[in-house]
Design goal:
11 strands; globular; alpha/beta; 3-stranded parallel sheet; 6-stranded parallel sheet; Rossmann fold; 2 domains; binds nicotinamide-adenine-dinucleotide; 9 helices
Length: 288
């Protein structure tokens, strides 16, 4: 039976640390402050932003959700974003995606100053990641950062490991592949046009599923030895409406060594990483 690597104990440790750091910053006259711009009422986005706000308040930071109407004009959206980008009392800023169709052409990641970019999507932060940074100077994208935090907690040394990352999105697959390379793993980035995916996943020490297809990875993708580590990034619903990942957890649980659950796995760590980035961003701005 695989070890289930849950986020809860990891999150608890980090919350304690972030709460202390927040309190120290407050004693130095700065309450870390996050602004989240939410356009419309896309139900998952409303839940995600609410969870992020609760997490920030739990560690003692301030968080405000700036709710704009679904049909907000491009001018109003941009001027709102610019107001908070320039406001020196705001330490972290991001736009909850997805945006409605009429705003989806805007590259919001580049409109948030790099030192407030708690999502880690600004070109300057992504360049540092590409240049080998493991988070020393860059604000890293939250989901990849959360995956690395989980692996470190579990004592997994990435050096020399072969990793199959399935999915090449800008928010998960690509930055996570780069980050794992920075930890000296050998990464194969797979996607919808990859041929013979099973051959690649069977030869990997670690499989990361970031596909967006419920229970896509099953035991047919694993080797017989039962020694593989499975990271499930997916957040989907199964045919009964229950939350599930990209990995068929019940099919693989006795055929791998370690697995992250859904829910209670990478999703929770994404919010934890956001909290870590807010504290890091606040410190960067205080040092300036
Ligand atoms: P995306 O739709 O942008 O990318 C999906 C990727 O999967 C693509 O690169 C595509 O090439 C690949 N893919 C699709 N079908 C495939 C197939 N048959 N074989 C191999 N690759 C295939 O998705 P995303 O934004 O990266 O999200 C992926 C999943 O992770 C979703 O379920 C999303 O909800 C979830 N997610 C979770 C978190 C978290 O905090 N846990 C954060 C972001 C995304």
């Amino acid at each position: 039976m695989a070890t289930v690597l849950k986020a809860a104990p990891i999150s608890q440790q980090i919350v304690e640390d972030l709460t202390k750091q927040c309190s120290l910053l407050k004693n130095n006259g700065c309450i870390p402050c996050l602004k989240v711009i939410l356009v419309g009422a896309h139900p998952p986005s409303v839940i995600y932003t609410r969870n992020k706000k609760k997490f920030m308040e739990d560690i003692g930071a301030e968080c405000e959700i700036i709710a704009l109407e679904e049909d907000v004009s491009e001018d109003t959206f941009l001027s709102t974003l610019q107001t908070y980008a320039k406001d020196s009392s705001v330490n972290g800023l991001f736009v909850q995606l997805p945006l409605p169709k009429h705003l989806s052409h805007i590259d919001v990641g580049q409109m948030v100053p790099p030192e407030k970019d708690v999502d880690g999507f600004h070109a300057q932060n992504l360049y540092k990641l590409m240049a080998g940074d493991k988070g020393e100077r860059a604000l890293l994208p939250c989901t990849p950062k959360g995956v690395i935090t989980m692996l470190k907690y579990a004592g997994v040394n990435l050096e020399g490991k072969s990793v199959a990352v399935i999915g090449r999105s800008l928010i998960v697959g690509k930055p996570l592949s780069l980050l794992m390379i920075n930890y000296n793993a050998t990464v194969t980035m797979c996607h919808s046009r990859t041929s013979d995916l099973k051959k690649i996943t069977k030869s990997a020490d670690i499989i990361v599923a970031a596909i967006g297809k419920a229970k896509f990875i099953n035991s047919e993708y694993l080797r017989e030895s039962g020694d593989q580590i499975l990271i499930d990034v997916g957040i989907n619903h199964d045919e009964f409406g229950n939350l599930c990942g990209d990995i068929d957890q019940s099919d693989v649980e006795d055929k791998c060594a370690l697995i992250t659950p859904v829910p209670g796995g990478v999703g929770k760590m994404t919010i934890v990483s956001l909290g870590q980035n807010l504290i890091a961003a606040t410190k960067i701005q205080m040092e300036k």
